[in-house]
Structure formats: C-alpha cells, structure tokens
C-alpha cells in the first residue's frame, strides 16, 4: 500500500512540475517575449517592406558600370481598398480600365489567400506619375507608393556582360524560398553571378491597425522596425573604356571580343554582338518580346556560349605539339602548291611564297605545312596505333584548356569540343582511319569547337610561354577575397622552351613588311610589338568567319585578345585590325592618327546581312 501511495505522490509531483513548466513558458511567450507577440499579432499589425539599395558594379579602376536610380512601385492592399474612381486612377498611370477591373477580379477570386497582404499593382512608375498620385492618394484608400531603386548605366556598354534584374516568378521562388513575391533578383550576367553580394537585406516598418483595419501609428514607436541593409558593391576586372570601345568597333557585326590580362587571368573586356543595349536593361520586361524574336539572339553571349571551329589560329597549338613531340624543328620546310594533296584528299591554301620553314608557316598561315605536320604527329612511331597517337594529341590539346570548361566565374560558360578516338572508331572502324581521315583538325576545322574565351586564353598561354591563369571577371578587394584557384598557374604539357619560335612566327605575321606574305599586318601598331595569328574558319552555311588571336607587347605582355567575327571572311581583313585597335586602346588609351582610317572602316562596316540567319523553308 505504501508503495502505491509513493507512486501516486511521485506521479502527482511530476504532473505538477510539467504544468508549472507550461505556465512559465506561456507567461514568457505572452507577457515577456514581445517579439513573439509581434509575430502572433500579424492581423493587428501592418508590415511595410523597406527595399534595400542594390550594390553597384564597378570596373577594375573603380569606375561605375552599374548604379542605382530612384523609382516607385504602386502597391495595393485589397482588404483596405474602398470604392474609387477607376477612370481617375487610369488617367494618372495611363491604364486601361478593363485591365484594372480584371486585376481586382483576380484579387477578389483569391481574397482568402491574399488576406491582409499587399500586392504590387504597378512597377517603376515615372516621377511625374508618382507626384500626381501623391496629390490624389486620399482618393485611393489601400493604394501606396513604395520607393524602389532601378539600375542605371553610366557607361553605354556591357549589356550582355552586366546582365539584368527582374521580378522573381513562381519557378524562381520554388528554388529560392528566401525570396518573396515582388522581390527582384539578378537573372543573367554579373547581376546573376553576384546576386548574393548585390541584393542587400530587406527591412520593414511595423504599424498598428485599428478596429477598422486602418493604419494608426508606428508599433511600439518603431522598436521592432528593421532597417534595410544596402547591398555590397562588386568590383570587376573589366576595363570600362576598353569594353565600351570594343562594342563601338563591333556594331553591326555578329561575333565577340575577349581580352585577358595574361599575368592574372583577369578578363579586361567581353563583348558579344549584337547584344542587349544598356538603355533597356532597367526595363527589360517591356522589351523582352522584341529581344526574344530578334534573329540575331542578342541575349546569347557568344563570348562564352558559342563554340565554333577556331580555324587557322589552332595551327599554333599543332605547331607547339609538333615541337614537343620532336616531329618538326624550326628548320623544317614544306612546299605548298596552293594547298595539300595526298591520296585523293586536297586541302586548299592561299597563294604565298614556297617552300616555307616553321616560322614562315605561322607568318603566312600555310595550310599545307600543317597538314604535313599533323600527319607526322599522328603517324609518329612513338605510338603503336593511330588511336594511341590521337589520344596523346588530344591530351596535349586539352592541356591548353580546349574541350572543357576553363572554370571561369562567369555564368553559362560552355566547354567546347575536342573529338576523341572513339568517335572515329565508330565512324570508320578501328582499322579504317588515319591522319588523312581527320586532316581538317590540322587547320582548326572538323569537329573542333572553341569559344572566344578559349581562344583568348590561348593568347594568354602564348604570352606566358606555356601556362595560364583561369580567366575570371571578379576582382579581389579588401573585403572580398579571390578563390585560390584563380591565382594558381595551369601549365600545358608543352615545354616552355618551345614557345619562343612560335611567338617569333606570330610577331612576323603582324610586323613583317608588305610583300612578305604576312597575314596579320592590319593588326600592327607602332612600338607595341603585337604578336598574332590569323584564322579563317570555314562555314558551310555562308561566308567564312574571321578570327584573330594576339598578345602584346612581346616582352612582359599586358593583354591577350581574341576576335571572332562571323561571316566576315579572312581573319586578316576584319578580326586582325579589330584586335590591333583593342590592344592599342588598352596600352596607349587612344588610337594613333595613322590608324584612324582602320577604325573608321571597321565602325562604318555593316556585316549583319552576311550573318543573318537563313529562314527555314
């Protein structure tokens, strides 16, 4: 009996302690913890969101690429709306009355879900509309003007590079639950890449409602209000003036320019043309239909998203592999009779002096020389099969960054393509192919696909004599570090000693006198010792693409540039002079008088029609 009483007393004591804990917790929640009360009393409180100022985007020198300008959104709390003069509201904001009625019909349909929430009724109204609304606002209960900021662009350049900001949609909210309807986020380019730094943190003011659900006063004199926290500025590696100049040169052309600082991998300029004009970025929603239907696809960033055959600039890679494998020397000569011929296969070439040695083959861009060299690489007796030789060649090519993503911090980078032996085994059978079957790879054609970013990186590798730093577009600052991977050199599998004769050929291609057969003479600039290589990428769907890769100066290089102009023809005619002017603009900050005629020729040229996509029948 005593034992049962003991258990009963123990149970009673336990229940007493349990209820005491509950009472203390309830007292704490209801009396002491006002923060909980603020949350629980949402029906009696009204939260007004305070949107943060978005961080600015700066160039490498601190110049502002993207700034902020004030704007206003008109918000409505459907629960608070009373009958109002619809026509008067429409006159202020130039609205269609039928659209207003349809919007409020939607609010009524989902009134239970909306509750006391505010909805964005209009976005980015003009200053005049905002002022007019303030004068008339007492006629429109439930409507309020909320200050926002929109993006502004001091430099008329970089639309595709900078990207745009727009209101988040349902799909975005599913992936990013930390956002709410009405919030804005970066959708492309640097705005997307740096969203976390740029967006800032929203705040709010809390107001008390009366029994009629109308706002009276600030709750607890603003004790629980939260200030908005501005976004952080982001500094990029871009040179604003060089970016603007590159877009100036590329107007009315289809293609891309990428410029890199070889010693760091910092991207100095990234031009995609035709691109999005900065004047419409802040209101891209209004122009989206026109942009989406444009046959030139201005939202498509060709610099990182358009892998195409590199053409003859790829001869530089094969030249280095040939030296590394010992199948060619700087004294090796080959004849060129307007091209290469073997076993019924012919690869044509432009007319130039013959025979040519190693350096001259680069200077004159001789196709026959590189067909012979490539055949020697793949038929090298050091390998026991064509597959082994090809796999070895591919491994060396990939060490230059081709056929894979370089690892840039810029969004949407494509990997390009370098074929492997298994592809040709499937096409020809294991014993059915040889170097002649894939001879187009010798001159950068065939199945190769490289982006302009890959080609600019090739220019940086040559400038550095065998290594590169992963290209990147964000610059380290005192408050933000840089991922160590961007500061570690990536070495190719070609010994640095082999680069100098290749560079000598590149120097001659640009700086040799008239009549020498040099293909890149239009890129030359006084005292800048530009080293470059032309490319003419064959295009089965129209005129060939014009390509050029270069770096300068020859010693202690400061810039590497790749230019790819679609359907423009020979590399020496359009891409080379464009690259030369970009180098001169960066190194000298101005264009010399004796090069103004080239600048005028490039700016006045309209090559869009040659590159216009053909309509499908």
Give a quick summary of the entry.
The protein is α+β, with helices and mostly antiparallel strands and 617 residues long.
Sum up the structure in keywords.
617 residues; alpha+beta; Beta-lactamase; five-stranded mixed β-sheet; five-stranded antiparallel β-sheet; 23 helices
Would you give an account of this structure?
This protein has 617 residues and is an alpha+beta fold. Helix content is 35%, strand content 17%. It folds into two domains: 45-81 and 91-235, Penicillin-binding protein 2a (Domain 2) (Alpha-Beta Complex); 240-292 and 302-611, 3-Layer(aba) Sandwich (Beta-lactamase), CATH 3.40.710. Strands 2, 3, 4, 5 and 10 form a five-stranded mixed β-sheet that branches. A five-stranded antiparallel β-sheet has the order 12-11-19-18-17, with helices on both faces. The longest helix is centred in the N-terminal third of the chain and has 31 residues, at 2-32. The radius of gyration is 32 Å and the shape is elongated. The N and C termini lie far apart (100 Å).
Summarize the helices and strands and which ones pair or pack:
Elements (H helix, E strand, L loop, with lengths): L1 H31 L1 H7 L4 E6 L6 E2 L5 E13 L9 H8 L3 H13 L1 H4 L4 E7 L1 H10 L6 E10 L6 H4 L2 E3 L2 H6 L8 E3 L2 H5 L1 H4 L4 E7 L5 E4 L15 E2 L4 H10 L5 E7 L4 E8 L10 H10 L8 H4 L9 H11 L13 E4 L2 E4 L9 H7 L2 H12 L7 H13 L22 H8 L23 H12 L3 E2 L21 E2 L7 H13 L19 E7 L7 E8 L6 E7 L9 H14 L7 H9 L3 H4 L6
Parallel strand pairs: 2-10
Antiparallel strand pairs: 1-8, 2-3, 3-4, 3-5, 6-7, 8-9, 11-12, 11-19, 13-14, 15-16, 17-18, 18-19
Helix pairs in contact: 11-21, 14-16, 15-20
């Amino acid at each position: 009996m005593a034992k049962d009483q003991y258990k009963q007393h123990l149970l009673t004591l336990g229940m007493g302690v349990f209820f005491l804990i509950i009472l203390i917790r309830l007292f704490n929640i209801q009396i002491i913890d006002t923060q909980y009360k603020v949350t629980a009393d949402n029906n009696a409180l009204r939260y007004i969101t305070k949107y943060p100022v978005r961080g600015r985007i700066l160039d490498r020198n601190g110049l502002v690429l993207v700034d902020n300008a004030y704007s206003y959104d008109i918000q409505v709390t459907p629960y608070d709306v009373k009958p109002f003069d619809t026509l008067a509201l429409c006159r202020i904001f130039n609205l269609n009355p039928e659209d207003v009625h349809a919007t409020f019909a939607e609010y009524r349909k989902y009134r239970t879900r909306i509750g006391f929430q505010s909805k964005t009724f209009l976005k980015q109204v003009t200053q005049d509309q905002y002022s007019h609304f303030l004068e008339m606002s007492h006629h429109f209960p439930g409507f309020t003007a909320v200050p926002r900021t929109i993006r502004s662009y001091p430099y008329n350049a970089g639309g595709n590079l900078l990207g745009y900001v727009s209101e988040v949609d349902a799909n975005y909210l599913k992936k990013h639950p930390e956002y709410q309807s009405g919030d804005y986020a970066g959708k492309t380019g640097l705005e997307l890449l740096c969203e976390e730094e740029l967006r800032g943190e929203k705040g709010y003011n809390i107001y008390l409602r009366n029994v009629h659900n109308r706002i009276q006063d600030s709750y607890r004199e603003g004790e629980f209000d939260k200030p908005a926290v501005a976004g952080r500025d982001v500094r990029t590696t871009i040179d604003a003036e060089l970016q603007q100049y590159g877009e100036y040169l590329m107007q009315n052309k289809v293609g891309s320019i990428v410029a890199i600082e070889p010693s760091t991998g910092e991207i100095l300029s990234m031009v995609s043309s035709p691109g999005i004009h900065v004047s419409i970025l802040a209101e891209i929603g209004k122009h989206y239909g026109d942009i989406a239907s444009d046959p030139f696809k201005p939202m498509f960033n060709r610099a990182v998203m358009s892998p195409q055959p590199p053409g003859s600039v790829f001869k530089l890679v094969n030249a280095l592999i040939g030296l590394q494998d010992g199948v060619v020397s700087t004294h090796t000569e080959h004849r060129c009779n307007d091209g290469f011929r073997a076993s019924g296969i012919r690869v044509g070439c432009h007319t130039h002096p013959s025979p040519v040695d190693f350096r001259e083959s680069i200077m004159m861009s001789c196709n026959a020389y590189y067909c012979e060299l490539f055949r020697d690489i793949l038929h090298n007796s050091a390998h026991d099969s064509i597959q082994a030789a090809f796999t070895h060649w591919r491994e060396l090519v990939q060490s230059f960054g081709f056929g894979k993503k370089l690892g840039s911090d810029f969004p949407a980078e494509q990997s390009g393509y370098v074929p492997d032996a298994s592809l040709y085994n499937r096409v020809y059978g294991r014993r059915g192919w040889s170097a002649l079957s894939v001879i187009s790879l010798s001159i950068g054609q065939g199945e190769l696909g490289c982006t302009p970013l890959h080609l600019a990186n090739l220019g940086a590798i040559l400038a550095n004599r065998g290594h590169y730093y992963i290209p990147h577009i964000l610059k380290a600052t005192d408050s933000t570090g840089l991922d160590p991977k961007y500061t570690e050199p990536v070495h190719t599998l070609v010994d640095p000693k082999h680069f100098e004769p290749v560079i000598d050929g590149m120097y001659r291609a640009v700086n040799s006198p008239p009549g020498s057969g040099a293909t890149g003479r239009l890129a030359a600039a006084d005292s800048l010792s530009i080293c470059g290589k032309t490319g003419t990428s064959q295009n089965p769907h129209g005129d060939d693409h014009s390509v050029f890769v270069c770096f300068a100066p020859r010693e202690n290089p400061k810039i590497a540039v790749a230019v790819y102009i679609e359907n423009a023809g020979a590399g020496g005619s359009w891409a080379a002079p464009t690259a030369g002017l970009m180098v001169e603009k960066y190194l000298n900050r101005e264009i010399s008088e004796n090069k103004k005629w080239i600048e005028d020729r490039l700016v006045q040229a309209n090559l869009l029609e040659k590159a216009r996509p053909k309509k499908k029948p």
